[in-house]
Amino acid sequence: MTILRFVCLVIACLGAGFAASADVSRVQVVGNGEPTRITVWADSEQEGRAFLAESGNARSLVLPVDGPVTPAVGDGGGGVATWALSEGTLSFALERPLMVARTLSLPPAGNEPSYRVIVDLQTVSAARFSSVAKKDMRKLASYQAKKRKEELAKLRMQLREHDDGAIIVDLKMPIKMGRIGE
Questions:
Q1: Which residues are 177's β-sheet partners?
Q2: Residue 32 CB neighbours (<10 A)
Q3: Distance between CA 106 and CA 71 in Å, rounded?
Q4: Going by C-beta distance under 8 Å and a sequence separation of 6 or more, which residues neighbour residue 28?
Q5: Cα separation of 125 and 131, whole Å?
Q6: pTM of the prediction?
Q7: pLDDT in tens, 4-18
Q8: Which are the contacts of 31, defined by CB distance < 8 A and separation ≥ 6?
């Protein structure tokens, strides 16, 4: 009976999480690098944070995405070769060094029923890009670790409300279990 209650609780928590957040519905890249604008439409509010990353000759821009997503890919423009949407991130492969000039996170308004994130990019030197990307990669790792801790704390609180002896199952990590209070 306890196992059945636990399974029902986990399903209810997951269902509530999915119902509360929604999919990225559209991604558009326009411009020529002077400037280039990326617009992301989503059904749920997004933070609008952008991080530059560099690995060897590969340069990218990473936007964390809250909520579940349907994986997708698309072509870019204006210095953005392609983009890819996967669980937790929207990544843009950059053809040349571009830097974030500004980010906006906009709520639905007027005729626009979706939340939007707008990222404006400007062309910069390779040295400037590398310098900012090094800092941003550390910031991204810290941001992702913080978000993961927040998700686990939220799940723990939901489980505590229902059963003091609930077992926590981390669905993103294989075979990681523990008891609350340990």
A1: 169
A2: 10
A3: 23
A4: 38, 39
A5: 10
A6: 0.68
A7: 333 333 333 333 333
A8: 37, 77, 78, 79, 121
